[in-house]
Amino acid sequence: MAQEWSHLIDKMSQRLAPSMAKDHPNLPVEKEEGCYYYGVDGKTYLDFTSGIATTNVGHRHPKVVQAIKDGADSLAHGPSGVIMYESILELADRLAEKLPGDLDCFFFGNSGAEAVEGAIKLAKHVTQRPYIVSFIGGFHGRSMGALSVTSSKSKYRQFLQPTGSYQVPFAQEDECPPGMDSEDYVVAELEKDFKRLFNHQVTPEEVAAVIVEPVLGEGGYVVPPKKWLEKVRELCDRYNILLIFDEVQTGFGRTGEWFASQTFGVTPDIMAIAKGIANGMPLSATVAPQALMKQWPLGSHATTFGGNPIACSAALAVLDVMEEENLLENAKEQGAYATKRLQEIKEKHEVIGRVRSIGLMIGIEIVDPTTGEPNSDGLFKILDKALENGVLFYFGGNQTEIIRMIPPLTVTQEQIEEGLQMLDKALTEYEQEISVGT
Fold first, then answer.
1. How far is CA 265 from CA 170, 207, 235, 288, in A?
2. Same domain, residue pair 33 and 160
């Protein structure tokens, strides 16, 4: 089996675009289940990535697998609108019960980028305004509309010249001057940033929407104060601008509530959801109140594959599992335990900078111990050593300095402890190497 995979990996560079095939670590696996990947090398790997925050109820949860099989027995494809089927309508009803405020009308798509595209198009269509404001460090996808509001890394925008948006800084409490309350600081800065934007670059009457990740995802798991998001909401209301929450990564229990909107107590006008919605099946949704969505008439947006009946069946099973297994509470409990343990591990390792967390969305900053500066090279060496020890993490941050810890919400305290012990060992091995090198 390993020899067969070696041949396939050699072929990968010929048949797959580097932008698709060269992610890290390219671990050859033959099976996934629960919180584990099973490698072709015969090893079992504890997965702290959840398919990049997607398999929130664990890989191949039996109820989700059965829902997929049962769904395939009746319908494999829509397209919704040409035909209509029960799973998409039941899912809309179930999701409307979970979403905050009056977010109760859905346009189903296939991916997070599609959900963001839909949110941008809806906002522009309804307001008849041309521009969107987003936040520096935000990641909203790589299709052209979504890319126009993405700024987590400049390389994503290189040579593409996306237009139609303006960016302002995200909340950065670590930049607060000594002696000043950090929450008050970022709120005051936000007010100044919007005033500067509207005075010098674009009038508020031209802005259709402000889009924000309630917690920066790919941009480094930066958790803003509740007061900061409340100020974003207040500014949008003040200037009659729609507020879009990109909850592609923060949704479906990742922050300890169904959505980060509920964690922070701030409700947007439009929401983009995906990833955890169907536990790996391609599905997403642009969500808005009926009064807003009904201003988006037939032909202004459409889809062939969105709201696939099998994916909708899987999403219904996800909702069942999350309720039956009390996964919101588990996310809070295991997230708190993991954060406590990471702070203890941080005391032992100078290469760890800040640890940022909310629920089971945890970022571990890796720095050069001599300068305190972000250390991307060190991060990848640590990730490789952690993988050798048996645990898979992912990366993030503007300078690729953040280890992302995003296990399935089904993770147990024992699995958290096992994975963090592996990380602790990897950090020790790395620090020993750099110590010898100096």
1. 18, 24, 16, 17
2. no
Residues 225 and 309 in one domain: yes
Same domain? For 276 and 148 the reply is yes
Give the angle subtended at the CA of 92 by the CAs of 135 and 306, to the nearest 5°: 70
Sign of CA dihedral 274, 249, 245, 201: negative
Q: Find the domain containing 235 and state its range.
A: 62-324
Distances (CA, A) of 195 to 130, 229, 261: 19, 17, 25
C-alpha–C-alpha distance, residues 311 and 110, integer Å: 9
Q: Please give the distance of CA 432 from its chain centroid, rounded to a whole number.
A: 33
Question: In terms of domains, do 314 and 341 share one?
Answer: no
Q: Do 144 and 23 belong to one domain? A: no
- Do 317 and 170 lie in one domain? The reply is yes
* Residue pair 249/54 in contact by the 8 Å Cβ criterion: no
Over its length of 438 residues, how does the chain's per-residue pLDDT go in tens digits? 556 677 777 788 788 888 887 789 999 999 999 999 999 999 999 999 999 999 999 999 999 999 999 999 999 999 999 999 999 999 999 999 999 999 999 999 999 999 999 999 999 999 999 999 999 999 999 999 999 999 999 988 988 888 999 999 999 999 999 999 999 999 999 999 999 999 999 999 999 999 999 999 999 999 999 999 999 999 999 999 999 999 999 999 999 999 999 999 999 999 999 999 999 999 999 999 999 999 998 889 999 999 999 999 999 999 999 999 999 999 999 999 999 999 999 999 999 999 999 999 999 999 999 999 999 999 999 999 999 999 999 999 999 999 999 999 999 999 999 999 999 999 999 999 998 765
Are 184 and 305 contained in the same domain?
yes
Look at the pTM and tell me if it is higher than 0.90.
yes
| H helix runs in 110-244, sequence order | 112-127, 144-147, 182-200, 226-238
